[in-house]
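Batch manifest, entry 17 of 40.
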Amino acid sequence: MYSTIGKPIALLQTLTKRVLKNKDGVAAIEFAFVAPVMIALYLGLAEVSLLISADRNVSHAASVTGDLATQEENLSTTDVEDIFNATLAVLGTNFTNSQRVSIDMISFEVDGAGNKQEIGYAKLGSGFSTKFNSDGVSATLLNQTSGLVVTRIKYDYHSPSQTFVQTPSLSETFMLKPRKSKSIPFGASITCTVTSSANGPRANC
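Output type: structure tokens
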């Protein structure tokens, strides 16, 4: 009687020990737990990298806008349009994303009485609700012997998945002094829009 009952029990114990000692499939189970985390981390890092690249482009574009503007003694509407087209090219955005880009450029000078005056203003997009305030600008930058050009760019960035980075607003302000003249006058209010062309987004002023 004992031997008849004992054999199945012994067999069951043996099988249980084998199952407990068997490591087959452990790696697959571990991968199932780790994989979602690793994939999410990879996608998150990719989106952060794209955001950093876009932010650098915004900073570079603001610098280029001011640099091109201050190389002239005065600017026409066509000149402003060309500068804004160069800005869009540096940003590298397509037509859809370019519609979320706002650019403005303002020129100041100081008259004989020491009053700061706006002598030129141009904008693309509607992202800036107010103009740049020159009250806090140092006299070393803006004085009676040298005007100042201020360029600003704002880009409402949309990440590919809008999951990790979502939709931050990237902005940059750049100030440069005129190179060839005391100040750089241009139109009091030049308004530009983004249009689509075979060569990509273009500014139309």
